[in-house]
UniProtKB/TrEMBL annotation, chain A:
Signal peptide span: 1-15
Domain of life of the source: Eukaryota
GO cellular component: GPI-anchor transamidase complex
Organism listed in the record: Caenorhabditis remanei (Caenorhabditis vulgaris)
Transmembrane segments: 453-479, 491-508
Pfam families in UniProt: Gpi16 (PF04113)
Protein name stated in the entry: GPI transamidase component PIG-T
One record GO biological process: attachment of GPI anchor to protein
Keywords: Membrane, Signal, Transmembrane, Transmembrane helix
TrEMBL record, chain B:
Organism: Caenorhabditis remanei (Caenorhabditis vulgaris)
UniProt keyword annotation of Transmembrane present: yes
Subcellular location: Endoplasmic reticulum membrane
Residues passing through the membrane, by range: 22-46, 67-98, 104-128, 137-158, 170-193, 205-225, 231-259, 271-291, 303-326
UniProt-recorded name of the protein: GPI transamidase subunit PIG-U
GO cellular-component term (any): GPI-anchor transamidase complex
Family statement drawn from the similarity comment of this UniProt entry: Belongs to the PIGU family.
UniProt cross-references to InterPro entries, sorted A to Z: PIG-U
Lineage: Eukaryota, Metazoa, Ecdysozoa, Nematoda, Chromadorea
Predominant location category: endoplasmic reticulum
Length: 531, 350
C-alpha cells in the first residue's frame, strides 16, 4: 500500500491520473432468465510530452496498441448465442454479432497504409485477446454508422470494419480480458468465472479502447465488458437468485484501488438498487455477501427495432439473402450494413428493398466493392422507417467455386455470411443503438477433394492429345505401306473374339472363371501324372 | 466470369437503358446474319471450286440450316449469350477470308482480339492470302495489331484514362501474372477443374505452359497444311474454340456449320460416328450432371467434369482427324496414278 501511494505521488508529478471503475448490472429478464452485465472502465490522463512509462491501473499493452497504431477508437466484440430481441430488448452496446467483430478508427497516411496497418493490428489483437481472427478481412471502410459508439463523424480518420462469423469465443478470451483489468484477483472480477458465464443462453464480451488528445494532454480509455443471459439454476423453486447461483462463486474481496465498484440490481419496474461494495465491511466477514435479486417478469417491455436475416434458394449455385428490418412504434433513422464475403458474388442489378405500408422510403446507399482476390463487399443503406414499418433487403447472389486451398478443412459444412449490422437513431431523441441480425450459413459448391492428381492427369492428357499428333504430323511424313498377307492378323483376331465370347458366356451363365482356370490346371496336372 | 473491356460495358449500358425491348431482336438479327454470312461464304467457296449452280445453292442452304437450326445456337440466342456476337465476328472473318479481302479481315481479327486475345491466332490464316510474300503477311499482322491498339486506346479513354481493366481482361489469361484463372467457375472448357484442383505452387507453371502451347500451335499447323486454306481456317478456329478460357457450347457452332465445306475429305475421316456420338451424348449429359452436382447433390463435381473433359477430348480428336485427313488426301493426290480405288493401305511415319 505504501508503494502504491509513492507511485501515485510520482505519477501526479508527471501530470498522470488513472482511474478504474467496476460495475455489475443484474437484470431479471423473465422468471427464469437473468441478464448480467460486467463493465470495467479504465482511463488514463497523461501529458504526451512528459509521458512517463509508469502505469498504475491502466494496462500498458493497451497504451502501446493505441500509440503504435495511432488508434482513435477500436471496438472488438466476441459473442455466441443469439440475442432475443423480442424478449430481452435492446442488446448490450456495442452490440455483438455471433463470432468476432472488429471496428477500428485510426490515423494513417493513405488507404494502402491503413490496410497494412489494420492487418498488423489484427495480429496484435490476436496476441492480446488470444483470438484467431487473422483471416478476418477488415479492409472494408464503412461510410455510414455501424456501431452506436462509433457515431461521430471525422473525415481524416480511416475506418475499417470486419466480421468473422465462424469464430468461437471461449475461456481463453475471458482469461485474457481479465488480465487487462487493474484488479485481477479481487473485487468484482473474481465473479468472471467461466463455468457459469459460458453455460448460458447468450454470451458476449467486448473491448473498447480509445484515445483522445487535446494538444499535449491525452486521455486514453478502455472498457472491458462481458454480458451474459443465463437461466435460473433453480427453475422450479421460485426463490430469489443468489450470487453463488449466478456466478458459482462468492464475492469475498474488494478492489482497493478502484474508484468505484458497485452492483446494480434492476427491479420489476426498472428501478435500480445500487450497492457500493467498495467500503462494505460485510464482504470480508464469515457470512457470504449477498444482494437481493428478485425473480420477476419485466412489466414494461421496451419496443425495439428488430432485424433478422434469412436465406433463400435451394441449389449450390444461386441463393438469396434477405435482411428483414421491422421498426418499433416510432419513426427512426436506420443504417444497415451488410458485409458480403468474397466467395459470394452479388448480382448488383437485382439488389432491392421491399417495404410494406407506404412503399419504399428514400434510401441512401453506399457500395464498397471488393477489389481483387479476397476482399469482401460492404453494402450500406440509410433509410427512414415509419412506425411499425417492415422492410426487406433482398440480395441475390451466386456462390463461387473456389480453389482447392481456399476451402476450410470442413468444406461441406458451408461458409458464413456475416450478420447485418443495423444502427438505429430515433429521430425525436438522441437515443441510438445498434443491433445485429443473424449470420447465415451458405453451402458452396465443392470440388472433389480426394482426387487432384486424377484431374491433373486427365487434363494434361487432353493437352498431350493435342500436342502429340501436331508434333508427329509436322515433323514426319505420312506414307502408305501396301498391306501384306492378312492371315496372321485375322487368326489372332478370331482367337481374341473367341475368348471374349467365352468370357461373356461364362459371365451370363454365372460360371466362376477361377474355377475354370483351376479345372484347366487340374487337367494339366493329370496330364503330367499320366506320363 | 469472362471479363470484357470497358467498351462492352458502355455499349450494353446504353442498350439496356435506351432500348431494353430491342435486346432480343438485336440478338436474333445477329444470329440470323451470322448464318447468312456463313452460307454466303460457303457459296463463294463452292463457286470458286467451279461447282454447278445447284450444288452452290444447296451448300448455302445446308450451311445456313446447320447454323440457324442448331438447337444450341437457338438457345444461346434466347438467353442473350455474348457468344452470338463472337460467332458473328467469326462468320464475318470467314466471309472476308474466302472472298479475298485480307486487310479488312486483319482489322476485324485485331479488333475482336481486343476483347479477348485468344482469336488472334486466326491471323495465321492470312498466310494463304499473302501470295507467299513474308512482307505482306507481316503487314497484315501489323494491321491486326494496329486495330487492336486502336480498340485498346478507345477502351483506355472510355475508362477515364485508367488502365485497371488490362489485368482482368488480358493478363488474367496471360503470362506471369498472379491472378491467372483466379476465379474460375464451372464451364464446358478444359481449364476450370484443373485450375481448381492444381496446387498453388504449380499454378503459374501450368498457366504459362498452356498459354505457350496455345499460341505456339498455329506455327506447325500452318507449316503442315499448306494447300487448303479452308481446312486450315477450320482447324485454327476449332482450336481457338477449344482453348478459349471461358468457352460455351455455342463457341463451336460456326465451325460445325462450315464442316460440310470439307467434303473432299469426307471419306477419309476415321472417327466420324464416334466423335459425333460423343459430342451429342456429352451435351445431353452436361445438364444432367450439373443438376446432380448443384441441385440435387446426388453427385459431385467429378460428374460434370467428366462430361466436359470427354466433350473436349472429342473436339480435340476432331482436330486430329482433320490433320490426318489432310495428310491422307495428299497421299491420294500424290499416288493417284499408281493406286487403285480399292487398294487397302497401311500408313507409317517416316
Amino acid at each position: 500500500m505504501r508503494e502504491l501511494i509513492v507511485l501515485v505521488l510520482v505519477a501526479l508529478a508527471h501530470g498522470l491520473t488513472e482511474h478504474f471503475d467496476e460495475k455489475i448490472t443484474l437484470a431479471p429478464l423473465s422468471t427464469n432468465e437473468l441478464r448480467v452485465d460486467f463493465r470495467f472502465n479504465s482511463d488514463r490522463n497523461f501529458n504526451i510530452e512528459t509521458e512517463s512509462r509508469d502505469f498504475l491501473t491502466f494496462p500498458r499493452i493497451i497504451q502501446e496498441l493505441l500509440t503504435r497504431y495511432s488508434i482513435r477508437k477500436l471496438t472488438v466484440t466476441m459473442a455466441h448465442g443469439r440475442w432475443n430481441l423480442d424478449e430481452w430488448g435492446v442488446p448490450p452496446q456495442p452490440s455483438a454479432p455471433a463470432g468476432a467483430q472488429v471496428l477500428a478508427e485510426f490515423d494513417a497516411e493513405n488507404g494502402e497504409k491503413a490496410d497494412e496497418r489494420m492487418k498488423f493490428l489484427v495480429e496484435a489483437l490476436n496476441g492480446v485477446l488470444c483470438t484467431s481472427i487473422s483471416h478476418i478481412n477488415v479492409i472494408t471502410s464503412p461510410e455510414l454508422v455501424v456501431l452506436a459508439n462509433h457515431g461521430e463523424k471525422s473525415k481524416k480518420l480511416f475506418k475499417r470494419y470486419g466480421v468473422l462469423s465462424g469464430e468461437t469465443t471461449c475461456t481463453e478470451n475471458l482469461t485474457r480480458l481479465r488480465k487487462l483489468l487493474a484488479c485481477k484477483e479481487n473485487g468484482l472480477s473474481t465473479l468472471l468465472h467461466p463455468s457459469k458465464l459460458y453455460n448460458s443462453l447468450y454470451h458476449s464480451s467486448h473491448l473498447v479502447i480509445e484515445q483522445k488528445c487535446l494538444k499535449s494532454q491525452c486521455e486514453a480509455r478502455m472498457e472491458v465488458g462481458v454480458s451474459v443471459v443465463m437461466r435460473n439454476p433453480s427453475q422450479k423453486s421460485q426463490r430469489h437468485w443468489s450470487l453463488a447461483d449466478v456466478f458459482d462463486r462468492k464475492l469475498g474481496s474488494q478492489c482497493k484501488i478502484a474508484r468505484s465498484s458497485q452492483i446494480d440490481v434492476i427491479g420489476r419496474q426498472g428501478e435500480i438498487t445500487s450497492t457500493d461494495i467498495k467500503n462494505l465491511t460485510a464482504i470480508s466477514g464469515e457470512e457470504p455477501f449477498e444482494v437481493y435479486i428478485p425473480v420477476t417478469e419485466i412489466s414494461k417491455k421496451e419496443s425495439v427495432v428488430k432485424a433478422w436475416s434469412s436465406q433463400g434458394g435451394f441449389e449450390q449455385k444461386h441463393g438469396v439473402l434477405t435482411v428483414h428490418v421491422t421498426n418499433d412504434n416510432s419513426d427512426s433513422e436506420i443504417h444497415v450494413s451488410q458485409i458480403i464475403p468474397y466467395y459470394v458474388h452479388l448480382r448488383y442489378s437485382r439488389i432491392k428493398w421491399e417495404c410494406d405500408m407506404d412503399g419504399v422510403p428514400t434510401i441512401v446507399k453506399y457500395l464498397r466493392n471488393s477489389e481483387g482476390g479476397e476482399a469482401p463487399t460492404l453494402l450500406q443503406y440509410r433509410l427512414n422507417l415509419a412506425a411499425g414499418q417492415t422492410c426487406e433487403l433482398v440480395i441475390p447472389f451466386d456462390k463461387q467455386l473456389l480453389r482447392l486451398e481456399q476451402y476450410p478443412p470442413d468444406a461441406n459444412h458451408g461458409m458464413h455470411i456475416p450478420s447485418a449490422s443495423v444502427f438505429v437513431r430515433k429521430s425525436d431523441s438522441s437515443h441510438a443503438y445498434s443491433i445485429h441480425s443473424s449470420a447465415i450459413l451458405v453451402l458452396l459448391p465443392v470440388p472433389d477433394f480426394s482426387m487432384p492428381f486424377n484431374v491433373i492427369c486427365f487434363v494434361a492428357t487432353a493437352f498431350a492429345l493435342v500436342f502429340g499428333p501436331i508434333q508427329l504430323y509436322s515433323t514426319m511424313w505420312l506414307a502408305p505401306v501396301v498391306k501384306k498377307s492378312q492371315w496372321g492378323r485375322k487368326i489372332h483376331r478370331i482367337i481374341l473374339l473367341a475368348i471374349i465370347a467365352f468370357c461373356l458366356y461364362a459371365h451370363m451363365m454365372d460360371i466362376n472363371l477361377n474355377e475354370i482356370r483351376r479345372g484347366i490346371e487340374n487337367q494339366l496336372e493329370k496330364l503330367n501324372e499320366l506320363k | 466470369m469472362h471479363f470484357l473491356p470497358p467498351l462492352t460495358l458502355h455499349v450494353f449500358r446504353f442498350l439496356l437503358k435506351s432500348l431494353p425491348t430491342l435486346l432480343l431482336p438485336i440478338w436474333i438479327l445477329f444470329d440470323v446474319s451470322t448464318a447468312y454470312m456463313a452460307s454466303q461464304a460457303a457459296q463463294f467457296v463452292w463457286k470458286s471450286m467451279k461447282k454447278s449452280d445447284e450444288e452452290t445453292k444447296n451448300i448455302g442452304k445446308l450451311v445456313f440450316n446447320i447454323y440457324a437450326f442448331n438447337p444450341i445456337t437457338i438457345v444461346s440466342t434466347g438467353i442473350l449469350s455474348l457468344t452470338v456476337f463472337q460467332n458473328f465476328c467469326f462468320a464475318a472473318i470467314f466471309l472476308l477470308f474466302v472472298t479475298d479481302r485480307p486487310s479488312i479481315c486483319a482489322i476485324l481479327i485485331g479488333s475482336w482480339s481486343s476483347f479477348t486475345i485468344y482469336p488472334f491466332t486466326l491471323i495465321f490464316c492470312l498466310v494463304f492470302r499473302s501470295n507467299g510474300s513474308k512482307l505482306k503477311f507481316l503487314s497484315f499482322v501489323t494491321l491486326g495489331l494496329i486495330s487492336w491498339a486502336a480498340f485498346f486506346g478507345l477502351n483506355f479513354l472510355l475508362n477515364g484514362g485508367n488502365s485497371n481493366f488490362v489485368e482482368p481482361v488480358y493478363l488474367s489469361i496471360l503470362f506471369f501474372c498472379s491472378l491467372k484463372f483466379s476465379s474460375i467457375q464451372p464451364n464446358v472448357g478444359i481449364y476450370w477443374y484443373f485450375f481448381v484442383q492444381i496446387f498453388e505452387h504449380f499454378r503459374s507453371f501450368y498457366t504459362n505452359s498452356f498459354v505457350i502451347l496455345y499460341f505456339f500451335m498455329p506455327f506447325p499447323i500452318t507449316c503442315m497444311i499448306r494447300k487448303d486454306p479452308i481446312l486450315h481456317f477450320t482447324i485454327i478456329g476449332l482450336l481457338a474454340s477449344i482453348f478459349f478460357p471461358y468457352p460455351t457450347l455455342n463457341q463451336v457452332s460456326l465451325i460445325f456449320a462450315i464442316l460440310p465445306l470439307l467434303e473432299v475429305y469426307r471419306k477419309h475421316f476415321r472417327y466420324t460416328i464416334l466423335i459425333a456420338g460423343t459430342i451429342v451424348t456429352t451435351i445431353m449429359l452436361m445438364p444432367i450432371m450439373w443438376h446432380m452436382w448443384m441441385v440435387s447433390s446426388s453427385g459431385n463435381a467429378n460428374f460434370f467434369f467428366g462430361a466436359t473433359i470427354v466433350y473436349n477430348v472429342a473436339l480435340i480428336n476432331l482436330v486430329m482427324d482433320m490433320i490426318f485427313v489432310y495428310s491422307r488426301r495428299q497421299i491420294d493426290l500424290e499416288y493417284s496414278d499408281t493406286l487403285k480405288k480399292d487398294t487397302k493401305m497401311d500408313f507409317a511415319f517416316y
